[in-house]
Amino acid sequence: MKKHRIPAIIVMTILASYCFAQTSQESKKTDHAQHESHSGHSLVKPEDIKWGSEGALPGTEFAVISGDPSKSGQFVIRIKMRAGLKVPPHWHPMDEHITVLTGRAVLGTGEKYDLAAGKEMTVGSYGRLPKKMPHFLFSKEETIVQVHGEGPFQVNWVNPADDPRKK
Ligand SMILES: [Cu+2]
After folding, report:
1. Which residues pair with 79 in a beta bridge?
2. What's the distance, CA 137 to chain centroid?
3. CB of 57 within 8 A of CB of 155?
4. Distances in Å between the alpha carbon of 159 and those of 31, 32, 99, 133?
């Protein structure tokens, strides 16, 4: 029995010191995670989204998810389009990344609004428009797209008469 007791105590001591070491390491990790959550982490739930229509095309609603699209830096926005909305040919000074979250849209490239030349985007579809590439969109039903990129996000209409601010 004695032969077994001594090793058992040693094992317990090793285990205990190991556990203490783990605990202090874990608390360090927790502190670090909390620190990160203060400095950069964000989580947006659907119920937190504030839809508005400022600056957008009639028939659309706009929500800022992350960042500020009017400033330089990464941004994430969502655009809700009513069914049957035509977004005329336009381009951006930055790459535009589009993901369809709900609905169905047709995305085409080129300076002419030609739906037949476009491609259908169903839920989960993603498209990247390189900077300065003219493109257009049509919503076959009410559609929400998420757009992300490097701000500032600017829209340049191929046909200046299409600019909703001039209507
Ligand atoms: Cu665009």
Report:
1. 62, 145
2. 19
3. no
4. 54, 51, 25, 14
The token pair that represents 106 in the structure block? 């047709």
Q: Which residue has the tokens 């998420």?
A: 146
Distance 79 CA to ligand 1 centre (A): 11
Type of residue at 9: I
pTM of the shown model: 0.74
Give per-residue pLDDT as tens, 84-109.
999 999 999 999 999 999 999 999 99
Ligand 1 centroid to residue 153 C-alpha, Å? 9
pLDDT tens column, 112-162: 999 999 999 999 999 999 999 999 999 999 999 999 999 999 999 999 999
Cα of 135 from ligand 1 centre, angstroms: 6
> What is the residue whose two structure tokens read 């926005």?
77
Report the C-alpha gap between 115 and 35 in whole angstroms: 49
Specify the residue for token string 């947006």: 44
Query: Ligand 1: distance of its center to the CA of 164 in Å?
Result: 14
